[in-house]
Amino acid sequence: MLVTKQKVLRRFWYALMPMSMLDDGPQPFTLLGENLVIWKGADGKPAALRDRCCHRTAKLSKGFVENGNIVCGYHGWTYDCSGACVRIPQSPNSAIPAGAKVPSFHCQEKYGYVWVALEDPLQPIPDFPEDGDPAYRRILQFYEKWNTSPLRVMENSFDNSHFSFVHKANFGLIDNPVPSKYDFRPNDWGFEAETHVPIRNPPESFRITGTTDAITERHLTNRWYLPFSRRFGCVYPASNRHHIIYNCATPIDDKTLMLAQWLYRNDDEASCSTQELIDWDRPITNEDRDILEATEYDACIDTRRRVEFHMESDKPGLLMRRMLLELLEQHGEEEVFEASGPGTAAQ
Ligand code: FES
Ligand code: CO
Predict the structure, then answer these.
(1) Is the dihedral of CA 237, 292, 280, 250 positive or negative?
(2) What region holds the Rieske domain (predicted)?
(3) Distance of alpha carbon 164 from alpha carbon 200, whole angstroms
(4) I want to staple 48 with a disulfide (CB 3.0 to 4.6 A). Which of 8, 105, 269, 324 is the partner?
């Protein structure tokens, strides 16, 4: 599935960047192949326009913010948050030409991030119930570009059969490669999947898991939100420490994405510092990234094309592919795949 070719994907919210980045002025971002400029308006809320001045096409992200409006860096045409041109400095006494406007997009702040939907969203921004709950602290762990497709990231995050191999240097049990099954609860926005996973728990992970046993258990209540957000709801029953991760794999184009990661913990800085938590997840993230960037980015959602083989533990990913295919069909679309790539090797 080539994400930039599936129009219905424009109708979801995606996390673009931390709000704090807007303190440095307007920022460019490419979402599903659409070049955007994001800035902070006079009310402190973020705004998103196409990154193209309607005078001579200069990127508005090269400009600056003045009184909450964005000013083009080329000749100073000025646009408000709705994209209407409100000032042409060279013609102060003439009316602004009718239709002098730049397309605008749905944009809002949530969980410390800027979220954008290119067309009327089908679902709200995924609910992170831990956010704002005094039992939890929020840690914005990272925001980085990966060279793969968001479906690969989503599938990997529910694929417990990769732990023993990709994460064998960390928590994976190489001698225990058969993963336990998930209980699935499909719903309007995707599904919830619950399971229990034994993990290697070396002494240096004590402050993360809160336990000292050589092997400990994770109780996972994970969620997938159509199309490319997920919750990793990890509880260590022996200590009742919660390590809840949310990711949004925001598609930049068909081959690249921006991965944002939030972490919620129910312990405090003295029990486990922010830096320890970031340092713990970093090598695990790098291991996932390394293998995912070594896959073909075009994951085919119509499995009838049989370009990949499957096994029992691929069930979450196969469910995602089926639900994505149903989403396309509901909106009158067919899957578009790489003409010269794996999708053509059908049957
Ligand atoms: Fe933007 Fe001229 S190109 S003002
Ligand atoms: Co992994």
Answers:
(1) negative
(2) 13-116
(3) 10
(4) 105
In Å, the largest CA–CA distance within the chain is 78
Secondary structure tally for the chain: helices H, strands E: 5, 17
* Residue 75 near ligand 1, beta carbon < 6 Å: yes
Residue ranges in the chain whose pLDDT is less than 70: 339-347
Residue 67 is given by DSSP the state: T
pLDDT value for 347: 37
Residues 6+ apart with CB under 8 A from 237: 217, 219
Contact by Cβ (8 Å): 51, 60 = yes
Ramachandran region of residue 226, left (φ > 0), alpha (ψ -120 to 50) or beta? beta
Ligand 1 close to Cβ of residue 74 (< 6 A): yes
Site to substitute for ligand 1 among 72, 79, 90, most atoms within 8 A of C-beta: 72
Residue 29 · residue 257 · CB < 8 Å: no
Nearest CA among 113, 140, 158, 141 for reference residue 288: 158
CA of residue 26 to ligand 2 center, whole Å:
34
DSSP annotation of 95 reads P
